[in-house]
Request: fold
Amino acid sequence: MTHSYPEVFDFQGFNAPSRIECDIYDLIVEGTIPQEIDGSWFRAIPDHQFPPKFAKDTYLSGDGMVSLLRIQNGHADFKQRYVMTERLKNDRAARRALHGLYRNPYTDDPSVRGKDRTVANTTPVWHGGRLLMTKEDGLPYEVDPQNLETKAQFNYGGRLKSQTFTAHPRLDDESGEMFFFGYEASGLATRDVAFGIEDRNGDLVHEEWFEVPFCSLMHDFLVTKEHIVFPVWPMTCDLERLKAGGAHWVWEPDKGSYIGIMPRGAGVAHLRWFHLEPRAAFHYLNAHSDGNRVNIDFAPARVVGFPFIQEASGISVPPEKMGGRGLVRWTFDLNRPAGGYEEAILGPGGDMPCVARKDAGKDYDIGYYQTFMPQNGTPHIVGPVGPGFNTIARIEVKTGKLSTYAPGPECTVQEHVHIPSKQAGHEGYLLFVVDLHDRMASELQLLEAGKIEDGPVARLQMPFRLRCQVHGTWVPG
Ligand code: V55
Ligand code: FE
Reply:
């Protein structure tokens, strides 16, 4: 390597690239991993193989790394590998970054023009007997779930027409279906969105396209037992700006937001759009339908949080001024011709929300997410947004009852995964990486999901600092 990583927060301190591919047999455990836990935890980590072509790059462009924690009989083994994307292969052949700005191929080296440039760095998805490493700007890569070797880019053998595939598909364990979408489905800055369904055998059984009001960063969506919901926030893309070497996303609040809702099984011709004030959100805790009333639970902000998008938009709003009202429930009534929605506040704001898989898309009570509480420690920079979360929260949404766990004043937490229990009446476990900022090190912690305030039942030591992941997934057995 002839040059180093730029002096911006995405690449310095705890965010310094790690680039470690490894196998660690039998992690050292303090406490006890319950015998009933048997499965694999896959995590996706952006980890730039090379210093970026331009200093103003974002964490979100890091080459995808996949890690596997295999837990069985109270023991845990760890493995981590790069996803061997076409982009990483081309960069390695040149021993430097040939690819330019986040999702702007017009800034790439001419030698890679027209070649695939997705980084497969956002979510490992397990369904239909396949492990896919996803990134919303392209097609996923299939990875071997045992040895993490990259197989090939995946599009159902050419049957999927969309050029993109979300990092947030939604699973319905009862029907066995996986619902997904892809935005910019026909190319950069297009308004085409593909909506697809994979059945329980892994076959593509549905693909239908529609147009969104404007091209927007549609990171996640919602599926209830009866409805599909597509939120569209005013983070917009423009082809001329890309051609001029500009940013993929800017914040354009004047456009307002749109929420598209259609009955499950009815087809995209039945999408109804609700137009509302500008808000920004990336993830949703859960949603459920109550007849024609559709409830979505999440923590919207008044402005986009990613510093690289704020900068491209000529604004600079610190996290404490982003002005969300917290974790809320929005209720849309499809019987109400005037549109609009009702809002109820459920709890403090945050992100990285999840529910037990059995509760997905249904009326439910328990959610888990992450938040920052000043009384639990000082802010530490980690990941793509800046200051990381220091607190895990468990909320009972019907009553607002909140429990929290914070690992310590110099700690931040990466996304937890929920592990179901086989015992009747047991809420399962939460497993997550803790960033130890005072030691520039990492450990894993395991909580009982029903008693997070009691602290970890097991802590797994890591012999090196883990770079901040995006999302993870638990695969039983
Ligand atoms: C997000 C993450 C991405 C991305 C766009 O969390 C949005 C939101 C890890 O990559 O490319
Ligand atoms: Fe996400």
